[in-house]
Specification:
By secondary structure, the chain is mostly helical. It is about 60% helix and about 0% strand. Helix 12 packs across helix 13.
Amino acid sequence: MDFEEAARMIVSSDIDDIIAWNDYFVIGDIEEIKKIVRAHGIINIGVEDIICTLSTTNTNYVTSGEGMGANRVVTALNHAINRLPVKLQDIEKVIVYVWISECSPILMSEIRGMIKFFGYNFPGIDLIWDVAMDPDIKGYKDNTNSGKQAQVMLGAIAGDIIGSHYEYVNDRIYNFELFTDGSFFTDDTVMTLAITRWLMESDYLSSSDLIKHMIELGRKYPDVGYGPGFKNWIWSDNPQPYNSYGNGSAMRVSPVALYAQTLNETLELAYITASVSHNHPEGIKGAQATAATIYMAKNGYTKSQIRELISVMFGYNLYRTINEIRPHYEWNDICQQSVPESIIAFLEGNDFEDVVRLAVSLGGDADTLGAIAGSIAACVYPIPENITMECEKRLTPDLLKILHDFEKYINDRNSLNHAS
C-alpha cells in the first residue's frame, strides 16, 4: 500500500480508535496535540491521527520516567510545522523531523511500528530509521574528524573562487582552466566567513548577532557580487528578511554543519542563517539541505545513503546525472535549481577537483554551484595543495585570519568534546 492509499484509509478512521491501537499514553498529551494540529490546519490525510499516536507508550516506558511528555511532543510538532520548509500536509517530512529531532529510541520503535501497522511505506523509511537510531547522528557520541574542519571551510571558498570567472562566461566544458586572472573570492566567501565569526563570537547565536556580523563584513567588502536585494539588505538601517529563495542562503551555510554536534542542531542553525534574509520556504530549504548533506558527509555516511535521505527529507530529485542536466540547464540563482544540482555534482564526482569541475561545467551561477559542491566534497576528499595555495593567496589577510581562527576554534571545541 502506498502513502496516498494509506492516507485515504486513515482519513475516515475515528481518531480515538487509532489512539486505542496502543493501550497506554501519557495523560494530557492527546488533547494538547489535537489543538496544535487543528490550529495549523493539518487535515485530510490522517496527520492528526499519526501525530496523536506519537504520544502513545507502554507501561514500562511510563514507569521508567523516560516517557515523551506533552511538552516534548508539542515542541517536536511545532518544530516540524514552523521550521521545516514543507507543506503542512506532508506527513512524510513531519514524521522524519520528529523522528530525528526529539524521539528516544524506544519511542522511535513505537512510531516505526505504528507506521508499518497503518501501511505507510514512503521511500527511505528504512534509511531514516537507521539514521535516527545512529548515535553519531543523534549526538550521543561525536564521530567528527576534527582535522577536516578547516579543509571543509576551504572547500566552499575554493569552489567559489574557481567558479567566479565562469559565472557569466561559461562554455559548459569540463576541462576549463581552474584559475585565471579573473578568479577571485565573491560574496559567497564573504558571507560564509561572516557566519564563521558569528559561530565563534556570539554567546547565544542570536539572529541579531548574525545580522551584525553579516552587515559588518558585507559593508567592508561591498563590491563582491551581491544581488540587488541582498545589497539593499546589507546597507539597510533596519535589515529585514525579504522573502528570497535565492541560493545565497545555501552558499553561506557550510560553517554551521561543521559547528553542529547533531543533525537537529545543524537544521536549526541553518534555519537561523537563512531566515534573517532568505525567509522564503525554498530559501530555508536550500540552506537546510546543503547543511544536512555536509553534516552527513563529514560523519562518514555513504553517497547512496546521503542521496536517499536528502531526497526524502527535502524532496529534491537527486537521481539525475550532470550529463542529463547540462544540456538544458539555464543560468539562475535560486535554491531549487542550484542546490540539488550541486549535491548531484558531489554524488557523481570522484575527487575534490572532479566535483567542482562538474558543478561549474553546468554553466549556471558557477561560483555558488562550486561553493556548495566544494563544501560537501571537502568532507570526503582532500583538497589538492595547488588549489589550497591558489585560493589562500587570493584571500585578503583578514579573511584568511577568520578562516584560520575558525580552524583552531573548531579543533579546540572538538578536543574538549572528546575529552568530556
